[in-house]
Specification:
The complex is a heterotrimer. By secondary structure, chain B is an alpha/beta fold. Chain B contains ten helices and twelve strands. Helix content of chain B is 40%, strand content 30%. The chains are: A alpha/beta, B alpha/beta, C alpha/beta. Chains in contact: A-C, B-C.
Chain lengths: 485, 251, 432
């Protein structure tokens, strides 16, 4: 049993060690007063110089939100959130309009550098990744705008998009995740402060991977970003989202909404590495991550692929989903979720098959250690008209230590006899045999565990873009020192 | 007497043309072999003959004893005497070998207005035939092909052939996945079924099967057409030179 | 409290205060639970896919009188000792072998201690409103005890029949308790039938002792207008074997819930079954396996066939508690949709708190495999017949898991009977 004990310790060291990104940037904040009422919403809308229609939209969402109940079906527990005890708007004070990164507050840039997002460096590295960085709530700088503009790609903060492309925003905002979709999405609709907007025109293959780094900074600030990506006919975009947050004693709320729209023959690949502060070993602090992500494959032969590596947050509540409306459209969900200590993750996906010959694949890998609970919750629904729909789902759980939990809750609903749905799930641990085998070939315990865990996640990891794969491997690996990969 | 007549046969799968004008006549009692590279349309031809859905005939005709095969469903063709020994025999969980054979035999008897077969006599007859093919009682009790090895599956196919007594047999890559001993048993089983009335079409990639089942005529299929027809010497020629000539010729 | 029953179903049963004090106490608590909960709605997760509005709309009346019950033809050839529960009343009890004690639950004033100690202790009323209603309202039923070390060879066949009355919805709440003492073994076969419109709200409690074995097989073949709501709750002790099989073919709306607690090491739990539905039938199967102790194995295979506008529901949960290391759990639900209007909701669930376990589950939904159909047709078998053979084989895979052969044959015949009536070209009984 010694090897197992080592395994447990190793994992604790890795996933439970002091949070690397735990520091606070000291920047002057421009904040709305604590609490949430119509005044807060009008304040946010006014601050952002929004048009009337958007304010109306927000206010309507707020009214609906007040009638809604916080959902309690997920396998997560947390003390009640006092929504009046939060700040809903926190913008770093800065010059109003930025023309280049040089104008960004240097301290802010330094923060990003500490986070390992070499914003400046990337600019020099000639357009590999364009980063739209969200610092708390407001997008501070967008790189590579010019290069993207050449291809007609719009990549900007959602606030800018509201101002500069009102028709696009009006047409698609809330069209995938309606304002009152669920409690957290509704709250977001009322108070969202910023986020990214992407539009890929017809036939354009976005020349670089687009990237946003989210970071929660201010104390008691809920982060409510909103992302909208529209891929017009026969276009392609790969979007990367990285999330970190500083270490704080208080739990912070994050309720984001991401909407994707893929028209005929379009493809959107959305990758997330979520590394929010998970709280300390006793579960103190950490991010409450209640996120609504949904993509609509509206067009024929369109494709939306979600890949996520979730290692952070005290609570993760997210179900990136695909509505497969277009005939022959494809939805994919690849997920690695690691929980340790007192973390709780309830994550999965929904694949809603509406069009003919729609196909979906779900691969979920849950790893649970410490006293954590890790739940896969998924829905595969095949509508009456979805002739020839296909789904394959595989959910594997790995338990490390005997105080944690791993749960699988799939919902399978079919109304079409020609549809074929297959679900498989397993739960296991790292076997003594595997460990011994690796070690007998000269690997240390930590290398062996790292190897096995990464092997366990391989099907998901290979879906990540190169830029993310290395970081993600480090996050999930047991020995981070380049021993894996 | 002509048993099978294929004329100008064109067929496609998922809208993709695979067979592009096949002409083939097989006399009663003859064994023909079709050889060809991968992707030449060999398996498509076998499925088209057996009447599998999804294999669309766009032009041409197939007649068995003068009857139009293309007008018939797969089961009607089987009743009329067509038998396809499949390259990958399908597993039927929950359906035992004996049930399967009895159902198949009774389907034929029903078609010609005969009563269902006597269960005891049938069991005896199947067991006797199974024995020569090395198919054990245990295999007959198990679900069809479930958990069978590659060799067991192929022997089981030949057993079905022996029990159903078709007049025209298509053997699709019957040698694939067989070691030399299994190949011998299967070939002997097939040879035992050669009669002056029964014809066979042996589809194979390799010449080695033809050492065991000697064909009267050999055809080379490539790019959906019969490129060459000859005697046994053709197989040896292919053995030496491979299919390179045919692959390039039509490319 | 006692005479203020607000749930119509409760009014169809026993007076709460009748009988000995232990029973009155049990009933009072149950009625409290039932009234507090009411009948569940679709917002209750456990009933998410089964809408009970049709039951809620009923004005049920108590079942009246009894009828003579006849074995279904498929069970005719099985040698068994029969017990009859007609409208909840014990109407026939064949002689049972030595070592088997039987008590009628109709007037348990003089119930032996083991009944008082066990009844209502296995099936929880707090979380399960229908169980609470049964416990509060049951008028009759049967309790069996297989004495320590006794092996009962002849199956006990319990025929439960409910008889509807024209123009009213009869409700019956049959109650069954079986205690298999340490080292004993027995086979219990439950067959539920009936005529007309009624609610059969049945509860079966099972206590399986150390090293004991119980085979428990159930056929639900209620009338097409019936509501069948059943709870089987089992408590298994160390090294016991529980072989459970349930086949549902009847009822307008049915729910078969089976809950078992594996409360000792080295228990072997086999839980298999099938649901065959056509017309507008709604069939809900809910299973819960509680692995509370280490070294136990559970194997579950359910096969569903849904034709016409039938709606099938399968909810299966395996819970592995922190202590239950070395658990080996397998669960599979396969459903076959034979019609464009059929529907399935499947929710196989794992909740696992022990790390050294081997647990897997799966679910498939689809129609018959094209290549299998072709294979049969290529051997001369007609399409209709080929489909019927494959459907029968599909169900047979689950039936095959029944451990006792005569019982297996009876269930095979029951399934074949359903096929004959509802699937064109189906092979005759024993055809496979």
């Amino acid at each position: 049993m010694a090897a197992t004990a080592d395994t447990v310790r190793q994992v604790e060291e890795v996933t439970g060690r002091a949070y690397k990104h735990g520091f606070v940037t000291d920047i002057d904040m421009d904040m709305a007063p604590k609490g949430l009422d119509e005044t807060t919403i009008r304040f946010i809308s006014a601050k952002k110089e929004e048009p009337e229609w958007l304010l109306e939209w927000r206010l309507k969402a707020f009214q609906q939100w007040q009638q809604m109940k916080e959902p309690d079906w997920a396998k997560v527990g947390y003390p009640p959130i006092d929504y009046q005890d939060l700040y809903y708007y926190a913008a770093p004070k800065q010059k109003p309009k930025l023309n280049s990164l040089d104008e960004v507050d240097p301290e802010l840039l330094a923060t990003y550098e500490k986070l390992g997002i070499p914003l400046k460096e990337q600019e020099i590295l000639a357009g590999v990744v364009a980063v739209d960085a969200v610092f708390d709530s407001v997008s501070v700088a967008t790189t590579y705008k010019k290069e993207l503009e050449k291809h007609g790609v719009i990549f900007c903060s959602i606030s800018e998009a509201v101002r500069d492309y009102p028709d696009l925003v009006k047409r698609y905002l809330g069209s995938v995740v309606p304002a009152a979709d669920n409690f957290f999405a509704c709250l977001n609709s009322a108070v969202f402060t910023d986020g990214s907007f992407v539009y890929i025109p017809k036939g354009v293959r976005c020349p670089m991977e687009l990237s946003t780094y989210f970071r929660i900074n201010a104390e008691n600030t809920g982060q409510f970003e909103r992302t909208l990506i529209v891929a017009d006919e026969a276009s392609y975009v790969s979007y990367l989202e990285g999330c970190t947050a500083p270490q704080r004693d208080e739990n912070q709320l994050h309720a984001a909404v991401v909407e994707l729209v893929a028209l005929d023959d379009a493809e959107i690949k959305y990758s997330t590495v979520q590394n929010w502060y998970p709280g300390d070993e006793d579960g103190k602090g950490g991010i409450y991550n209640f996120v609504t992500k949904r993509g609509a494959c509206r067009g024929k032969r369109s494709k939306i692929s979600w890949t996520q590596v979730e290692t952070g947050s005290a609570i993760t509540w997210k179900y990136p989903s695909c509505i497969l409306q277009g005939d022959d459209s494809v939805g994919e969900f690849y997920s690695v979720a690691i929980t340790n200590n007192a973390q709780q993750a309830d994550t999965g996906t929904k694949m809603i098959h509406l069009g003919k010959n729609t196909r979906s694949t779900i691969i979920s890998k849950g790893i649970s250690a410490g006293r954590a609970d890790n739940t896969y919750r998924g829905l595969v629904r095949v509508g009456k008209r979805a002739e020839g729909a296909r789904n394959f789902t595989q959910c594997d759980s790995l338990l490390i230590g005997d105080k944690c939990g791993a749960h699988t809750v799939p919902y399978i609903e079919s109304k079409n006899p020609s549809a074929r749905i297959e679900h498989e799930a397993t739960t296991s641990k790292i076997s003594e045999d595997q460990l011994f085998y690796c070690m007998s070939r000269g690997l240390s315990t930590e290398d062996a565990v790292g190897l096995i865990v990464n092997g366990f996640c391989k099907e998901v990891m290979k879906e990540l873009p190169m830029e993310f794969a290395v970081e993600a491997q480090k996050l999930i690996g047991i020995s981070l020192e380049g021993s894996v990969g | 007497m002509t048993l099978l007549e294929i004329e100008n046969l064109h067929a496609e799968v998922d809208g993709k043309p695979i067979l592009k004008g096949i002409d083939l006549t097989i006399e009663a009692g003859q064994v023909h072999a079709i050889m060809g590279p991968n992707g030449s349309g060999k398996s498509t031809l076998s499925y088209v003959l057996a009447g599998r859905e999804g294999y669309e005939v766009t032009e041409g005709s197939i007649r068995l004893n003068g009857q139009d095969l293309l007008e018939m469903e797969a089961d009607e063709r089987a009743v009329a005497g067509v038998f396809l020994a499949m390259q990958y025999p399908v597993e039927l969980p929950g359906v035992t070998g004996m049930t399967f054979l009895r159902e198949a035999v009774n389907a034929r008897r029903k078609a010609v207005g005969e009563d269902e077969i006597d269960a005891m006599g049938f069991l005896k007859m199947v067991r006797a035939k199974a024995k020569t093919l090395g198919v054990t009682d245990e295999m007959l009790k198990r679900a069809v092909n479930v958990g069978f090895s590659g060799g067991e599956k192929k022997r089981n196919e030949i057993l079905q052939m022996a029990v159903l007594e078709p007049i025209f047999c298509v053997l699709d890559e019957t040698d694939s996945g067989l070691d030399i001993d299994a190949l011998k048993i299967v070939s002997e089983g097939v040879n035992a079924l050669r009669t002056p009335e029964r014809s066979m079409l042996v589809i194979t990639h390799y010449q080695r099967l033809l050492n065991h089942i000697e064909p009267d005529v050999i055809h080379v299929l490539a790019h959906g057409r019969i490129q060459k027809t000859g005697g046994k010497e053709l197989a040896l020629e292919l053995e030496q030179n491979g299919y390179a000539d045919y692959v390039e010729a039509a490319a | 409290m006692a005479d203020q029953a607000t749930l119509p179903l409760l009014t169809t049963g026993a007076s709460i205060d009748a009988g000995p004090e232990w029973l009155a106490t049990l009933r009072r608590t149950a009625v409290e639970h039932a009234e507090r909960a009411g009948l569940p709605g679709v917002r209750t997760e456990a009933w998410k896919f089964t809408n009970l509005n049709a039951i809620k709309a009923l004005e049920p009346v108590a079942a009246q009188g009894t009828v003579e019950i006849v074995r279904p033809a498929s069970f005719a050839g099985m040698d068994a000792a029969e017990l009859h529960l007609s409208n909840g009343t014990l109407t026939r009890a064949d002689a049972l072998p030595d070592g088997v004690e039987m008590v009628s639950l109709a007037g348990p004033d003089e119930a032996p201690g083991w009944v008082a100690d066990t009844l209502g202790r296995i099936a929880d009323t707090d979380q399960h409103p229908f169980t609470a209603i049964n416990t509060g309202a049951f008028l009759g039923g049967v309790a069996l005890r297989i004495a320590r070390g006794v092996a009962v060879e002849r199956p006990i066949l319990l025929l439960v029949d409910t008889h509807g009355v024209e123009g009213a919805a009869v409700a019956a709440h049959p109650r069954v308790l079986v205690v298999v003492e340490d080292g004993a073994s027995a086979d219990l076969v439950e067959v539920h039938t009936g005529s007309g419109a009624y609610v059969n709200n049945a509860v079966t409690e099972l206590v399986i002792g150390k090293d004991a074995r119980l085979g428990h097989y159930k056929l639900q073949a209620e009338s097409g207008e019936a509501f069948h709501i059943a709870m089987t709750a089992a408590h298994c002790a160390e090294s016991s074997t529980y072989d459970n099989f349930a086949l549902s073919t009847g009822g307008r709306l049915s729910r078969n819930e089976i809950r078992a607690t594996l409360d000792g090491r080295h228990i072997e739990y086999r839980i298999n079954g099938g649901y065959l539905a056509c017309g507008d039938q709604h069939m809900d199967t809910a299973t819960f396996i509680d692995h509370a102790k280490p070294d136990c194995a559970s194997h579950e295979l359910y096969k569903g066939v849904l034709a016409d506008r039938a709606h099938g529901v399968f909810q299966g949960k395996i819970l592995v508690r922190p202590d239950a290391q070395k658990t080996d759990g397998y669960q599979m639900n396969r459903a076959l949709l034979l019609s464009r209007d059929a529907e399935i909701n499947s929710k196989p669930e794992l909740e696992i708190y022990a790390d050294d376990v081997k647990c897997s589950h799966g679910a498939t939904v689809g129609e018959l495999e094209d290549d299998q159909l072709f294979y049969l047709m290529a051997r001369g078998i007609s399409k209709e017949r080929a489909r019927a053979i494959l459907v029968a084989a599909y169900v047979d895979e689950a039936i095959d898991h029944i451990q006792r052969e005569p019982i297996r044959d009876a269930f095979r015949a029951a399934a074949a009977d359903w096929m004959q009536r509802h699937i064109a070209g189906a092979p005759a009984e024993g055809g496979l």
